[in-house]
Write the structure tokens for this entry.
Amino acid sequence: MTESIRQSYQRSIEQPEEFWGEAAGAIDWHKPPTQVLDQGNPPFTRWFADGELNICHNALDHHVDEGNGDRVALIYDSPVTQTSTQYSYLELRNEVSKIAGVLVGQGVECGDRVVIYMPMIPQAVMAMLACARIGAIHSVVFGGFAARELATRIDDARPKVIMSASCGIEGSRVIAYKPLLDEAISLASHKPLGSIVLQREQCPASLQPGFDHDWEALAATSTAAQCLPVPSTHPLYILYTSGTTGQPKGVVHDTGGYAVALKWSMKAIYNCDPGDVFWAASDVGWVVGHSYIAYAPLLKGCTTLLYEGKPVGTPDAGAFWRVIQQHQVSTLFTAPTAIRAIRKEDPDAKLLGDQTKSLRALFLAGERCDPDTLAWAQEMLSVPVIDHWWQTETGWAICANCLGIEQLPVISGSPTLAVPGYQVQILNAEAEVQEANTLGALVCKLPLPPGTFTTLWQNDDGFVESYFTRFPGYYETGDAGYINEEGYVFVMARTDDIINVAGHRLSTGAIEEALSAHPDVAECAVIGIADKLKGQLPLGMLVLKSGVERGKEEICAEAIQGVRDHVGPVAAFKLCTIVDRLPKTRSGKILRATMRAIADGEDYKAPATIDDPEILAEITADLATMGYPSGV
Ligand code: COA
Ligand code: AMP
């Protein structure tokens, strides 16, 4: 008899060793683990600690060895270069082995770090798998970050080499990556031994002899490298994500727990089997790209689809539907923003036609899914539309409607139930568990399931301090919400200063640091305000130093450019205003929530402790000149 989702969940919590031990049976271990769960040093949970494996072997060689080398492993669809190619498991294994050989040739050894700064091309996935093949720890940096952000990550990860490409293509624009890479290396204190650059014909880069190496030239003469078994707890990758300060956090995922959880999730959550075409329309620079473009579909023997394009404009709002039909995609995973962008251009889905017949489900994540977007997608696609909640730290879904176990009714606004392994609860400020329907901090009781982060890179103290100190015995997600009587979880807002712009997680602190660097700015605050397309947009409020006489527009334009240079275009920072003072409580705390409420047109009550209530009226007037509240 098949298990219901509630039975499966119960077993995962009451008998985690049995539950995950069984899931670990799907992995081809070099040395099978004898111990499933080690909780000897909480919160540093270790999964399958004495097991040894290679995740690249499990993602590629294993399928070739099983006789499935001809199956398509990766489809590359790039409307921006008019390309559509594919690699079988055998071809991908051979390419990855060559690139792994290139890394070995450059002196990269097990445990060394490799930063990957690449656009959405197959070589980005190959680079990740090549690192994993030889036990090197990859750290992929999203292409939309500025050189300074890349430099910060280089200094923290201290890579031996950097893998990059000469350019990325954003819609119709070619973005040269090499100058950004050069600038980042010159800004960083840590100097890598060299770079490996894939030349793209759209914008070849000039290479500095002795430091920059041509990717293709090295690959042509490299010796294929074999898979190196590593301990289950060996770090697979570091992925930097926004924290509350400008300093990003280096989230570390292990190898064994990650492989087990991801492979399990492909069936349990996404209901995918080997041979299915799985498309995560994200970017390899984000956690979704790591887990569901690079690793999970390949572990499962599915075909993963890598798309270099946008939901709209490449060439139009029918792009997603065209890709689904052309490649017979069974499961699409994207952010609600992408669906909102398509809907905005093609509200009646005239470009859809019958192109999505192969589609069995649409999964959404990265930001809260608004009920309108959910309803539209359900109506247009006539397949289950599943909102699921997760984070860079968890690496896979905390809450979801597990289609491969039991499909539950969708409740708009909720990512459904906690996934097996996650003990999701709501706590108040005193760490007391809250009753149903009471808003509070969303936490997960320890231990976290396999696949979730094991520490912050070389910062165990920061790991404990940021996530496990406020509520001892729990992982603090940083999100707030509530759980209803049936266990449906509702994720409502962040409890910190992180904002979510087009499904991208950004730190207001990082943007504030960039604004404060402007010579005329005395003080500033950044808040996330509601936006119809991107969910939230950052709004900067600047207080100028006394005596500054220059034009406000000029200063705002410089401040906007400053954020682009410091943080990157991904911040989508375009709204900036100059105010006389920032509203603060008498103890000096900036009233961000109140300012956000004004901008979003919500009711708000000025706190009694505010030092000067008139400031709020000034801010309201300033926002009105920019078209806020927008009525979202
Ligand atoms: N390299 C360089 N620049 C990049 C980049 C990259 N990899 N990715 C984004 N940018 C740039 C964009 O070109 C844009 O620059 P601009 O201000 O000069 O126009 C800026 O960063 C902001 O990007 P974005 O927020 O993506 O806006 P957009 O207007 O280009 O596209 C959407 C809007 C809705 C189509 C897009 O945000 C989208 O597809 N969102 C889905 C998000 C997603 O998949 N998230 C992953 C979590 S599942
Ligand atoms: P990231 O680490 O970039 O994946 O961002 C994680 C954050 O995005 C979460 O902490 C949430 O704030 C938000 N998020 C992701 N998925 C959802 C979802 N399905 N519903 C609500 N918020 C989400």
Notes: The chain has two domains: 5-309+388-481, 502-625. Residues 241, 287, 365-369, 387-392, 415, 477-479, 491, 494, 500, 505 surround adenosine monophosphate (ligand 2) (CB under 6 Å). The mean pLDDT is 94. The chain is about 30% helix and 25% strand.
